[in-house]
Design a protein that fits this description.
Elements: H1 23-35, E1 40-43, H2 54-62, E2 68-73, H3 78-87, E3 92-96, H4 102-109, H5 114-126, E4 132-138, H6 147-152, E5 159-165, H7 182-192, E6 195-197, E7 207-212, E8 218-222, E9 237-238, E10 243-245, E11 253-255, H8 257-261, H9 266-278, H10 300-303
Helix pairs in contact: 1-2, 1-9, 3-5
The structure holds S-adenosylmethionine.
S-adenosylmethionine binds next to strand 2, strand 4 and helix 10.
Length: 305
């Protein structure tokens, strides 16, 4: 997929093979990160399910003591791979689903495969993945007329439907006219459904969650732009080209490749991971004033969302 809000039509240049981390290198960073306190690893992308060998990597990560993995996927290969993911020890999934209308889905993702994605979600549900989160980037004039339909997905299924604010990222065609603040979406939902704050919200969750009267699932609002949750953010990201990035929306990375490829010992690599955590800023700088000129220096596909 090349979602219009994420990837330019022509795509991005591919990186030469030697620039991306090998699975051995990823596994080493993950293992050492787990030793300094990281216990949840989300595998994302780009599209993680298209990288050959990803299931094997996932099994190895899940074999590390005290560690769990989750995936963020566009769902296109889920129908075929959900069972393998389950066997590799994955229990939680996030799936992007920006429209329930086939034509619109094709316009947004530039691929006419809504039916396949829905079958993938159904398959994952039948295999018992939980939570099963459905991510919707909500855009004015694009998919904001589907809010009720999205909430209704939670009626008979224990899905967690999450509305995400459209963020300005490098080369993603963002413009203010398409932006809707999470509070506005919440107000629309409140007019249609009886919602209650979800008291089981985990600490550090980016999403403000609600249960809905008479529904099995729940909904959430993610507001990186209008209402930062930086003070509770505990995430760091490892890019495919080997940089640990401390904040989604702010410059500040440590290139792990010189150490990984230059014979650094485990203590040295662990120290670099600690340094990357300490680089974490108190908050990102994307506010209402500089939204239009905000520069993330990397595209979302390079960071992973
Ligand atoms: N290929 C996978 C997928 O489609 O979910 C993983 C990568 S994708 C970059 C991860 C998440 O970032 C998706 O849920 C996507 O909707 C979200 N995302 C991408 N660009 C975004 C933007 N500009 N604003 C908000 N969310 C965005």
């Amino acid at each position: 997929m090349r979602c219009t809000y994420c990837v330019p039509k022509e795509g991005f240049n591919s990186l030469p093979h030697e620039d991306i981390l090998s699975y051995e290198e990823i596994l080493r960073v993950v293992t050492l990160a787990s030793e300094v306190g990281v216990n949840k690893f989300r595998i994302t992308g780009g599209e993680p399910l298209v990288r050959r060998g990803v299931i094997d990597l996932t099994s190895k990560i899940n074999a590390i003591d005290g560690v769990e993995t989750t995936f963020t996927t566009n769902g296109l290969l889920l129908e075929d791979m959900a069972e393998e993911l389950k066997s590799a020890g994955v229990r939680r999934l996030n799936i992007s689903l920006d429209s329930l209308n086939p034509k619109r889905f094709a316009d947004i993702t530039r691929i006419d495969k809504l039916d396949k994605v829905l079958r993938g979600i159904e398959k994952a549900h039948s295999l018992g993945f939980t939570p099963l989160k459905l991510n919707i980037v909500i855009m004015k004039g694009v998919n904001d007329d589907e809010i009720e339909e999205f909430v209704n997905l939670t009626k008979n299924r224990n899905y967690h439907v999450r509305f995400i604010e459209f963020m300005p990222m490098k080369a993603n065609g963002w413009d203010r006219s398409k932006f809707i603040a999470a509070d506005e979406v919440e107000t629309m939902v409140e007019k249609l459904f009886n919602i209650l704050p979800d008291s089981s919200d985990p600490k550090g969750s980016p999403s403000r969650n609600y249960t809905i009267d008479g529904h099995l699932g729940k909904i959430g609002f993610i507001s990186p732009v209008s209402r930062h949750f930086c003070d509770s953010c505990n995430r760091i990201r490892l890019t495919s080209d080997g940089h640990i990035r401390s904040c989604l929306l702010r410059k500040g990375e440590i290139d792990m490749r010189p150490a990984l490829r230059g014979g650094a010992g485990d203590d040295e690599v662990r120290e670099l991971i600690r340094e990357a955590v300490l680089l974490k800023p108190s908050g990102h700088e994307m506010d209402n004033v500089n939204l239009d000129s905000h520069d993330t220096h990397r595209s979302m596909t390079q960071i992973g969302g």
